[in-house]
């Protein structure tokens, strides 16, 4: 089901993934240098593909706290080293200056995102941030799933998150507010929300060189593939299209 909005309303909605879309790093792995030898221990690496990602992250966070002794403040310090993609802050400021809304929809977690956006002084630019909740108990981070399950066949790789469902729920909170929706992403789980953009007044911004570009290419290898309804822009830095916003 495509996102539907009434035409002629107040503003557009800009939706952003986080890792490799707003920042140059993967926030879930950027602190691995805190492990011995600066890499994931073998006992964790051996089970990485056997676990749903949120469950795996909790194994990582438990290990790094209980066996390495890394504190939440040490994790925070590492996350704060993440870099915004070139031109991203200017892009956010330009979007807001036009009266549009910006939201983040990410399979990272609330603490990691909070630490990074606050460090870069951009937290005030977002209308909402939708991500896996994270709490700190006894100085250890614990990540919870955004959804326990969903029924989307496009998002089987992320059973805890369908970004299209999240966007529809956001739209339901603000009925009639948005005229067009634009989506920025890089990963395979960004395919679903981009595919459901409604028409050529909406734009899908695909970061070049990442999994989303590959998934789109593979999708169109099927001669019967249904076309995307939105315009498509491929980019590497936000400076690439800043003048087009």
UniProtKB/TrEMBL annotation:
InterPro entries: HAD-like_sf (IPR036412), HAD_hydro_PyrdxlP_Pase-like (IPR006384), HAD_sf (IPR023214), Pase_PHOSPHO-typ (IPR016965). Substrate binds at residues 28, 107. One of its GO terms (molecular function) is metal ion binding. It comes from the Eukaryota. Its cofactor is Mg(2+). The keyword Metal-binding applies. Pfam families: Put_Phosphatase. Keywords: Hydrolase, Magnesium, Metal-binding. Mg(2+) binds at residues 17, 19, 186. The active site is at residues 17, 19. NCBIfam families: DKMTPPase-SF, HAD-SF-IB. This is 2,3-diketo-5-methylthio-1-phosphopentane phosphatase family protein. It comes from Tetrahymena thermophila (strain SB210).
């Amino acid at each position: 089901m495509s996102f539907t909005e009434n035409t002629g309303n107040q503003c557009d909605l800009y939706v952003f993934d986080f890792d490799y879309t707003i920042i140059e790093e993967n926030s879930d792995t950027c602190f691995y240098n805190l492990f011995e030898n600066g890499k994931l221990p073998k006992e964790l690496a051996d089970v990485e593909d056997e676990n749903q990602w949120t469950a795996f992250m909790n194994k990582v966070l438990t290990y790094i706290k209980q066996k390495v002794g890394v504190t939440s403040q040490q994790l925070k310090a590492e996350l704060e080293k993440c870099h915004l993609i070139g031109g991203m802050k200017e892009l956010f400021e330009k979007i807001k200056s036009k009266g549009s809304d910006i939201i983040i929809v990410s399979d990272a977690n609330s603490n990691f995102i909070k630490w990074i956006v606050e460090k870069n002084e951009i937290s005030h630019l977002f209308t909402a941030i939708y991500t896996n909740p994270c709490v700190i108990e006894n100085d250890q981070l614990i990540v919870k799933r955004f959804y326990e399950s969903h029924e989307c066949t496009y998002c089987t790789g992320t059973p805890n998150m369908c970004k299209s469902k999240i966007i529809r729920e956001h739209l339901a909170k603000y009925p009639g507010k948005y005229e067009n929706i634009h989506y920025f992403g890089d990963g395979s789980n960004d395919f679903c929300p981009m595919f459901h953009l409604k028409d050529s007044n909406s734009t899908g911004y695909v970061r070049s060189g990442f999994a989303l570009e590959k998934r789109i290419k593979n999708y169109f290898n099927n001669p019967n593939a249904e076309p995307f309804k939105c315009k498509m822009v491929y980019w590497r830095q936000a400076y690439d299209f800043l003048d087009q916003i």
